[in-house]
Specification:
The chain is an alpha/beta fold. Helices cover about 45% and strands about 15% of the residues. The chain contains 17 helices and eleven strands. The strands form two sheets. A seven-stranded parallel beta sheet has the order 4-3-2-1-5-6-7, with helices on both faces. Helix 5 runs parallel beside helix 6. The longest helix has 23 residues. The chain is globular, with a radius of gyration of 20 Å. The relative contact order is 0.11. Bound molecules: NADPH dihydro-nicotinamide-adenine-dinucleotide phosphate (NDP).
Length: about 400
C-alpha cells in the first residue's frame, strides 16, 4: 500500500485528490489529511479514507475537530506546527494543496522526509523556488507539478532534451472578465470575479484567474520548475481551456497537451507517475468542440503579467514580495476594501518599495527569510492600502 497525505484536503484540489484515492481504497494508506476551517469536510473525509491523522490549521478549531472525530480512532491536532508535523510524517506521496504561502513550510517538511511532493501550491515555487528545489535535491525527494499547465509542460517534455526547447507556451482562459470593457473592470464585484468560465476551483485562484495574477504566478512557477529563461516563456489566451500548455522545439515542432478542464487529470498523472492509468475524466470530442481560439494577452488589461516579468528579472526574494503583497491585496478585495484594479497597483507599489531595499530582497533564500519577507510584504501592502484610502 502506498502511504499518502493530502495537505489542503478540504479544498478544491484536495477534494479531487480524495476522489481519486477513494476509488482505490486497497491501494492507499492515508497518513494525514489537513484542512482549515471546514471541519465537517475534514472529519467526513478522515473517516471515509480511514486517515491516521487529521489536522486543522487553526487551534481555535481543535475542539470541533475532536468532537467530529470522536470514536473514529483518527488522531487530531491543530495549528501551524501540527500542520508541518503532519507533512513530516513518513509518506510515499504528499499532495501540497494548501492555498497561499501557508503551503510552503509543510511542503518543505514533506520533501525533507523524502516523499514525492505533488505540487499544486504554486506559491511555494513563486516565493522560494530555489529553496524548494534544493530541498528536494538534498533529500532525494521528487517534486511533481500538479498545476495543469505545468503538468502539461512536464508531459510534453517526456523523453525530450531541454536544450532543444525554444519556448514554453502556457495558456490562460482569460478568466471571468476576458470580454469585459477595460473601463468596467474598475467596478467588478467579488461575485463577478469569483466565477470562472471553465474551471471549478477555490475562490482565491478563481479571482486570481480573472486578474491574471494566477497566470503571473504560473509564469514564475514555470521559470523555477523548468529552470528556463523567462524570455522563452509565453502566455496565450485560449478561451476553451482545452490546451493547457505547449512546448516549442528547435525544429519548429510544438507539442501541445490537450485535455478537459478537470484537475483530476493533472492530479492523477502525478499520483500514478511514471505510469498512466485510467482516470475518471471526460474524453474530448474534438469534432464537437469544432474550433479552438487563441489571442495575445492585452498588457493593459492584465498588468499582473508585466509585474511577474519584473519579478523574474529581479530575482532574489522578489517572488515572496510579489506573492505576499498579492495575497494581502486579494484579502482586501474579498473584504470589499479595494477595487478589482487596485490589486495590481498595490502589488506594484510594494514591489517598488522593496526594490529600493536591496538588503531585504537579496537576503539569502532560507525559510525564515522567505517567511519574514512574506510578512513584511503583507504589512507594506496594508500600509500602501491605508495610504491610498486616506
Ligand atoms: P481552496 O481554497 O479550495 O482550498 C485551500 C485548502 O487550504 C483548504 O483545504 C483550506 O482549508 C486550506 N487552507 C486555507 N488557508 C490555510 C492556511 N492558512 N493554512 C493551512 N491550510 C489552509 O484552494 P484550491 O484547492 O483551489 O487551491 C489550492 C492550491 O492549488 C493553490 O495554491 C492553488 O493556486 C493551486 N491550484 C489550484 C487549482 C484548482 O483547480 N483549484 C489548479 C491549480 C493549482 P479550509 O477550506 O478547510 O479552510
Amino acid at each position: 500500500m502506498r502511504r499518502v497525505s493530502i495537505l489542503g484536503a478540504t479544498g478544491s484540489v484536495g477534494q479531487n485528490t480524495i476522489d481519486l484515492i477513494a476509488r482505490a481504497p486497497d491501494e492507499y494508506d492515508v497518513v494525514a489529511l489537513t484542512g482549515g476551517l471546514n471541519i465537517a469536510q475534514l472529519a467526513t473525509d478522515a473517516r471515509a479514507v480511514n486517515a491516521d491523522l487529521a489536522v486543522t490549521a487553526y487551534e481555535s478549531q481543535l475542539d470541533d475537530l475532536r468532537a467530529a472525530l470522536a470514536g473514529s480512532g483518527v488522531e487530531v491536532a491543530a495549528g501551524q506546527v501540527a500542520l508541518t508535523e503532519a507533512a513530516a510524517r513518513p509518506a510515499d506521496w504528499v499532495m501540497s494543496a494548501i492555498v497561499g504561502a501557508a503551503g510552503l513550510a509543510p511542503g518543505i517538511a514533506a520533501l525533507k522526509q523524502g516523499a514525492t511532493l505533488a505540487l499544486a501550491n504554486k506559491e511555494s515555487l513563486v516565493c522560494a523556488g530555489t529553496l524548494v528545489l534544493d530541498t528536494a535535491r538534498r533529500h532525494n525527494a521528487r517534486l511533481l507539478p500538479v498545476d495543469s499547465e505545468h503538468s502539461a509542460v512536464f508531459q510534453a517534455l517526456v523523453g525530450e532534451d531541454m536544450a532543444a526547447v525554444e519556448r514554453i507556451i502556457i495558456t490562460a482562459s482569460g478568466g471571468a472578465f476576458r470580454d469585459w470593457p477595460l473601463e468596467a473592470l474598475k467596478s467588478a464585484t467579488l461575485a463577478e470575479a469569483s466565477s470562472h468560465p471553465n474551471w471549478n476551483m477555490g475562490q482565491r485562484i478563481t479571482i486570481d484567474s480573472a486578474s491574471m495574477f494566477n497566470k503571473a504566478l504560473e509564469l514564475i512557477e514555470t521559470k523555477e520548475y523548468f529552470d528556463v529563461d523567462p524570455a522563452k516563456i509565453e502566455v496565450i489566451i485560449h478561451p476553451e481551456s482545452m490546451i493547457h500548455a505547449m512546448v516549442g522545439f528547435n525544429d519548429g515542432a510544438i507539442m501541445a497537451h490537450v485535455g478537459p478542464p478537470d484537475m483530476r487529470h493533472a492530479i492523477g498523472y502525478a499520483l500514478h507517475w511514471p505510469e498512466r492509468r485510467d482516470l475518471p475524466v471526460a474524453r474530448l470530442d474534438l469534432a464537437q468542440i469544432g474550433q479552438l481560439n487563441f489571442a495575445a494577452p492585452d498588457d493593459a488589461r492584465y498588468p499582473a503579467l508585466r509585474l511577474a516579468r519584473a519579478v523574474m528579472a529581479r530575482g532574489g526574494l522578489a517572488g515572496a514580495v510579489f506573492n505576499g503583497a498579492k495575497e494581502r491585496a486579494l484579502d482586501a478585495f474579498i473584504a470589499g476594501r479595494i477595487g478589482f484594479l487596485d490589486m495590481a497597483e498595490v502589488v506594484e507599489e510594494v514591489l517598488t518599495r522593496f526594490n529600493a531595499q536591496p538588503d531585504l530582497i537579496d537576503a539569502a533564500m532560507t525559510l525564515d527569510n522567505v517567511t519574514q519577507t512574506d510578512h513584511l510584504a503583507r504589512k507594506w501592502a496594508d500600509a500602501v492600502m491605508a495610504q491610498r484610502a486616506g
